[in-house]
């Protein structure tokens, strides 16, 4: 009897030990599973995303070949740090742009109804000579007779004296601008002109966004126009990114002399986070731009990054190569977007021509933006998208592998800067989205109530 009691106890102890052992083994296994396995993914979602609501950004990004979780990881670990470095090198810092506008759509819009609104409709003789020169430098904001009144909206034209060699000029059928060097072009140092709040708002800008979206898919049933839907998503993703940058670097108090810049969380929530489709479109646009850069790998690796600064130029090429060949990136998300699915069927070429025309109109709309700094970033990013479209769908679009892509220097600069902007936005949304959603999903407060202040 006693013997059998002891036997029972021993068996119970054995089961107990087996159970503890198994639990320990399971815990060890969970902590060592590869980051991509479902267990690890759920763990990460649980630990990173406190809000259950945030689980809506889970699984494959629509129309893409990569998951939200993977995008966040490769962005934080690979893309964001490298891109932040790359855009600071001289090659990617100087962007050639025609800054005054010739809005082809509504000349009587009254963009310059205030003399402070824009440079675009002022008489030619009001512009200083250096304004027109490609290498025009050091135009001080107070000398600009017809700049926007708000200093934060004017572009700082200070550039490094060392310009860089010209590249091949090849037309981009997706964009409107003639990129050939001419007296109307000016070089702008992007690092001196961060994309942020400028105070540009009202009916004039609303008209631009409305016209941009009207060029899109609104009038088509969604199943009939995957290509047009993609154009809409690209614009919406870009719009989200612009809004995120405005919210992340916002002028909180315009009245005092000590400018208070900081985050405007309620704006971030109202304009982007509150609308899951806008967040999804941001991720889509990021993957689309990433795919185009990866597809142009061969070209980008061999391009000439000479700006007359040998060390910087060598580092530019090295950092870009590092990004284009990063194992973690290429194994986690080898083909972020599959362009081969588009423009199929008999109507493919015609659809492509229509879409090109629509995108060219969107590109031309950038000339209607009545705020100089917004126009600079609008033009750069739309050129970046146009370059992505050109890379992915080639010049004629029918047989992308038939011809090797040729890019202009400005297109390369725009592509990488666009990717960097999107990467910054995705990082901000990933890091701040859940808490901002939790905060504003419940409380609706004024911008200043919930803003993070910092002095300029
Ligand atoms: C190309 C461009 C660049 C700009 N750059 C700057 C800048 O650098 N700094 C700055 O301060 N201002 C910039 N602006 C202005 C800025 O984008 C806003 O238009 C402005 O702040 C007024 O905002 P809003 O609240 O009226 O909404 P807006 O952002 O103007 O949106 C207008 C309407 O578009 C729809 N919408 C908004 N977001 C999305 C989305 N992601 N997807 C689909 N639909 C959407 C909504 O119906 C919304 O009511 C830029 C404008 C343009 C056109």
UniProtKB/TrEMBL annotation:
Cofactor requirements of the protein: FAD
Record's keyword terms, sorted: Disulfide bond, Electron transport, Endoplasmic reticulum, FAD, Flavoprotein, Glycoprotein, Membrane, Oxidoreductase, Redox-active center, Signal, Transmembrane, Transmembrane helix, Transport
Disulfide bonds: 112-117, 371-374
InterPro entries documented for this protein: Ero1 (IPR007266), ERO1-like_sf (IPR037192)
GO terms, molecular function: oxidoreductase activity
Location of the protein in the cell: Endoplasmic reticulum membrane
Membrane topology value: Peripheral membrane protein
Chief location bin: endoplasmic reticulum
UniProt binding sites for FAD: 196, 198, 209, 236, 239, 271
Active site as annotated: 371 (nucleophile), 374
A GO-annotated cellular component: endoplasmic reticulum membrane
Residue ranges the record marks as coiled coil: none
Transmembrane segments: 12-33
Any Pfam family the entry gives: ERO1
Similarity field: Belongs to the EROs family.
Assembly behavior: May function both as a monomer and a homodimer.
Protein name listed in UniProt: Endoplasmic reticulum oxidoreductin-1, variant 2
Gene label: AERO1
